[in-house]
What does this fold into?
Amino acid sequence: MFSFPLAVQIRQYVRFKNRSQELISSGRRDLIDDNGFKNALYMIDIGQNDLLQALYNSNLTYTTVVEKIPPMLLEIKKAIQTVYLYGGRKFWVHNTGPLGCAPKELAINPHNESDLDPIGCFRVHNNVVKTFNKGLFSLVSEMRAQLKDATLVYVDIYSIKYKLSADSKRYGFVDPLMACCGFGGRPNNYDRKATCGQPGSTICRNLTKAVVWDGVHYTEAANRFVVDAILSNRYTYPKILLNRFW
It folds into this structure.
């Protein structure tokens, strides 16, 4: 699996829009027109892979990673500006969740108790994420002031997911720091030699009570919790309901 840099994705978007307009002008009627691009909701959820790679490259050193955050935020700013230039006016921006609570990270990175927060998540991972999210919040606020005719909503995914990990039993979940599908059992049920789907891996008995599916990605039940929290409007800034864009 390969991930595409944000700049590449934006170039693909520009190409897609320009080509759509060319085909419409030549008679096609089954493509998105200029008004469609303007009324579309542009959802941005990015940063997790960049922060993890920076953490790996720095041997989990907070200061080194934080120095790399401003260029990451600049790329997001350029992306929003480009989409705006090409007509986009509605932006829904997710911050990054608590990477330090991922079973994979806890399993592959040696640590002791002092490296963990009160609920057992990596401090350095989550501190890096919180610094990134603080910068992202400022960026979205800055651009909201600059792009007067655009709507930019910041969504606090971090708080939603951390709340789920911290109070999992309250919401009907168990073992939030364990992968449901994996190998090795407690504490994290994650092994690079037998990841989910590979020989030796197993699946937990009650998937509806698991938070993390494969050590990284959330289960359907956990994602439902996240979506319900987003739709509650308690974690959006400003307080704009998602269905306002429909």
